[in-house]
């Protein structure tokens, strides 16, 4: 059972003024006696104008306080770009086994890899799926996509969502055109994505998503420009198929191996032996995650000399060997590695970390963009705009609560316009420090957490920019959630109270 009542702004409000005239208020919306409506309205208007004027004075004082912000920021802590950030307490002395995904976790790739994947995928679309040859002219745009976007297969929009599943006002694109807020409401009815609408969304969470998001947007825009009819779901399935082909066929890896100086970022040598296999107790190739976590496929041992798979049953993992395929169930039966003694590192929250998390392992998300985003958040220029934004936000909230629709005076409208303009300027400045199209990966334009941050919070016990950061911590370290709990532990929120006199 549910009950609802629509609230209609009352014509009268009770304010804490003193008045010699006697009056009686009876019940909710009760009757007024012994004085005229005209007198009440006049007194009320005066109180509202006084409150608007008070907020205007505070706005003027706030603008004066902006000059003090740079000095106040000097006392605020800086976050470590190479730090390990903790969602769930983790004792490293309890960890006995470290497992790693390979691509974009152990292997460091340059930004040129995203353009390579984009080019190879568009060629597959044209050559194999018969997309228009004009698509070959597309160029990858490094400035456009970020990790953690969503594509709506039903409506064809590329979306950035906040922590609670609402569309970012400046983070909704149809092709390469940013939609206005009015268009978002027209398409979705509201900025909040409900459960039914969410069924049409696909998440773009890993390193491949940069190429995928950009290629989807470019194809949609091309079809719109050429006035070609298309189904938004077909675009997604075709592009996703092309991206997966580039990855699983090995065509991208062949290009990378042919020019490692261009595509690979060399790690410093750790001084171990002659072979990389000596670094690991178990090496598994072609695991085909996330199916690895749910299938019952057997392991096969790879014969390096014969370049074939052996036929003997795998019931133990031997050093310096390479194993193919397999599944989590068999892996656990063979190794007996269970529970919190294992930590697994990966860059894809769903394919890499969701399965191990459900198996009881500890999980570490590797997000390369984290370093740059923390460095930006550490800058005084970003924190200055964040402080301004929160100060203006508070004043706007108070102004909204002061006046109902029927009592919006010219003074109110003028102040509202000034506050909104100042707020929007700060908001755009913060966003453009990251990506002009979608802003930051972990943050919304207002400095709050994004939907990507929600998934990090859900599936990663800890997160950091690269596995090597663990070398800065002793092996017996206790990694704990900060005592001043925030949603994401690497965020520092600039409080407006720092600048009030």
Automatic annotation (TrEMBL):
The keyword Magnesium applies. InterPro entries: HAD-like_sf, HAD-SF_hydro_IG_5-nucl, HAD_sf, Pur_nucleotidase. Keywords: Coiled coil, Hydrolase, Magnesium, Metal-binding. Residues 409-436 form a coiled coil. Pfam families: 5_nucleotid. Belongs to the 5'(3')-deoxyribonucleotidase family. This is Uncharacterized protein isoform X3.
């Amino acid at each position: 059972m549910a009950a609802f009542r629509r609230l209609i702004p009352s014509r009268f409000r009770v304010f804490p003024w003193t008045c010699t005239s006697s009056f009686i208020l009876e019940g909710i919306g009760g009757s007024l006696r012994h004085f005229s409506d005209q007198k009440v309205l006049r007194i009320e208007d005066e109180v509202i104008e006084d409150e608007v004027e008070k907020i205007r004075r505070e706005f003027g004082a706030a603008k004066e306080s902006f000059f003090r912000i740079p000095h106040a920021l000097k006392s605020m802590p800086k976050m470590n770009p190479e730090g390990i950030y903790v969602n769930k307490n983790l004792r490293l002395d309890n960890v006995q086994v470290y497992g790693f995904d390979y691509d974009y976790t152990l292997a460091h790739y340059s930004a040129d890899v995203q353009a390579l994947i984009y080019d190879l995928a568009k060629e597959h679309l044209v050559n194999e799926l018969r997309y228009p040859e004009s698509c070959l002219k597309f160029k990858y745009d490094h400035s456009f996509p970020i990790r953690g976007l969503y594509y709506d297969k039903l409506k064809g929009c590329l979306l950035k969502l906040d922590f609670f599943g609402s569309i970012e006002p400046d983070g909704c694109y149809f092709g390469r055109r940013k939609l206005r807020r009015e268009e978002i409401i027209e398409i979705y009815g509201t900025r909040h994505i409900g459960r039914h609408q969410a069924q049409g969304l696909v998440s773009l969470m890993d390193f491949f998503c940069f190429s995928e998001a950009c290629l989807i947007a470019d194809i949609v825009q091309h079809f719109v420009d050429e006035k070609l009819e298309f189904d938004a779901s077909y675009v997604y399935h075709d592009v996703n198929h092309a991206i997966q082909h580039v990855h699983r066929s090995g065509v991208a890896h062949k290009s990378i191996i042919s020019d490692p100086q261009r595509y690979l970022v060399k790690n410093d040598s750790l001084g171990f032996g002659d072979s990389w296999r000596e670094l690991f107790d178990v090496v598994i190739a072609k695991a085909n995650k996330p199916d690895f976590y749910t299938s019952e496929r057997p392991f096969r041992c790879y014969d390096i000399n014969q370049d074939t798979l052996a036929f003997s049953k795998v019931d133990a993992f031997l050093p310096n060997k390479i194993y193919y395929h397999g599944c989590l169930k068999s892996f656990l039966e063979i190794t007996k590695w269970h529970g919190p003694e294992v930590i697994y590192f990966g860059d894809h929250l769903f394919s890499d970390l969701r399965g191990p998390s459900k198996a009881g392992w500890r999980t570490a998300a590797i997000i390369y963009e984290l370093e740059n985003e923390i460095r930006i958040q550490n800058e005084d220029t970003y924190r200055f705009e964040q402080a301004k934004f929160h100060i203006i936000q508070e004043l706007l909230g108070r102004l909204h609560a002061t006046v109902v629709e029927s009592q919006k005076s010219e003074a109110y409208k003028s102040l509202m316009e000034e506050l909104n303009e100042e707020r929007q300027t700060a908001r755009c400045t913060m966003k453009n420090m990251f990506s002009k199209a979608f802003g930051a990966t972990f943050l919304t334009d207002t400095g709050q957490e994004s939907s990507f941050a929600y998934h990090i919070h859900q599936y990663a016990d800890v997160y950091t920019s690269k596995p090597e950061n663990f070398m800065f911590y002793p092996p017996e370290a206790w990694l704990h959630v900060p005592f001043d709990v925030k949603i994401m532990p690497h965020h520092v929120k600039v409080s407006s109270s720092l600048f009030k006199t």
